[in-house]
Amino acid sequence: MTQLAIPTARDEEWRYADFAALATLAPERFGEWKEVELAPGEVRRKCMVLGGSAPELHRIRLTVDGKTLTQPVTVKRNPLITDVTLADLKEQFDLGIQIRDKLSEANQAVINIRDLKKQTADRLTKSQDPALKTAADAFSKHVSDVEEAIYQVRNQSGQDPLNFPIKINNRLGTLLQTVTTGDGKPIGAARPIFNDLSGEVKVETDRLSKVLADDLVKLNAELKRLGLPEVTLAKPTVS
Hints:
The protein contains 6 helices and 3 strands, in the order αβββααααα. The chain is mainly α and 239 residues long. A hairpin with a 2-residue loop joins β2 (56-64) and β3 (67-75). α3 (130-150) packs antiparallel against α6.
């Protein structure tokens, strides 16, 4: 394998690069490319989550209608921040990502529940069967109990959060804002609070799994008996 040399200012495509940052990277990184091909008139957006304990190099090669444009992008820490270590920034980034993922998990549970309730209500419009209604009502109540534990369903106006207690997803969102505001090490209580909220999310997602394993199975048995489509869990919309 050929050893790649660190670029210099004499290399045209690297002329405006930050060579101090490039010097910290392994030579093999200079041969890596992110390939992007677009058709004429096509528009594409991509979100990149950037973070880490060292400078990062992203080389993008864009091809449009057979014509190629290349551009190296070096990501490094803000030089104006002098009282925060790279370890502090990495800890902040890592915890922020964990909170974000847990918040997404909680929100996805609410999205799933609302879709399941919508499907259930639709099936009830297709039959007046008493056994179906009993199974549907039990299922809807039990998934609603989980939804209301995760999300404050009574919020309708800007004043309502003052009148009704915040729920798990709002507390996770507030914690995420606290941890990611500014640049620095998270406050000491952030990790214990996150662990507590993660446990609360697990309680509710476990409860939802039990409802799906019990009540949804019973509901679908009634739907199958009546020749109606089953209520099914949709693919996740949050990733």
